[in-house]
Write a structure and sequence with these properties.
By secondary structure, the protein is mainly alpha-helical. It is elongated and about 105 Å long. The chain is built from 6 helices and 4 strands. The longest helix has 49 residues. It has a 4-stranded antiparallel β-sheet with strand order 1-2-3-4, with helices on one face. It has 2 domains: 94 residues, DNA Primase, Chain A; 64 residues. Helix content is 61%, strand content 5%. Helix 1 packs across helix 4 and helix 5 runs antiparallel to helix 6. The structure holds zinc ion.
Length: 184
């Protein structure tokens, strides 16, 4: 298991009160202690479940920040120290097994595939929208150019057909538009 995921797991098991009880001698008052980072005497460092903050020096962070700053350790070392001191028993140095690595690769591949499919579908929708858009424009053009100039003139068949098609394509375009802009 990688360090980061161990750290995430550790955070679910060890919280700030645990850390304070374990490493700080001063008795807390209402979730506050004298700040060890600026050597304060007043109870200015406040902490909650997973987080601490000193209102004087501004030092703040999670359990790992506290432990690494207090003991002057790196992040990884602070993970190791909490793991040991709280007897959590995570193995920090083991490399992931071949099977776990394969699983991870499979998961990443599946994620990429689903992303591609999504992009593909979106592109298809986008293309379909612009195709309808062009068709509507085309039928409008046909209607304009084949419209009867005089009232008594017979309607040309392409005019009637274009009128028909225009209605239908406009309807489809309306649907596509409402989907595109997110209203119905
Ligand atoms: Zn402070």
């Amino acid at each position: 298991m990688a360090k980061i995921s161990v750290a995430t797991e550790i955070k679910q098991q060890v919280n700030m009160p645990d850390i304070i009880n374990r490493y700080i001698v001063a008795k807390p008052r209402h979730n506050r202690i004298p700040c060890p980072f600026h050597d304060g005497e007043d109870y200015n460092l406040s902490y909650k479940k997973g987080f601490f903050k000193c209102f004087v020096c501004g030092m703040s962070g999670d359990i790992f920040k506290f432990v690494s700053s207090y003991f002057n350790l790196t992040f990884a070392e602070s993970v190791g120290k909490i793991n040991e001191d709280f007897l959590l028993g995570y193995s920090l140095h083991e490399k992931p097994s071949y099977r776990d690595q394969l699983k991870m690769i499979e998961r990443q591949k599946a994620l990429r595939e689903s992303q591609k499919t999504k992009e593909h579908l979106e592109k298809e929708k986008e293309d379909a929208y612009w195709k309808l858009f062009d068709e509507v424009a085309l039928y409008e053009e046909i209607i304009q150019s084949s419209a009867p100039k005089l009232a008594e003139e017979d309607l040309k068949p392409q005019f009637i057909e274009a009128l028909h098609n225009l209605e239908y394509k406009k309807y489809l375009l309306g649907l596509a538009e409402s989907e595109r802009w997110g209203y119905a």
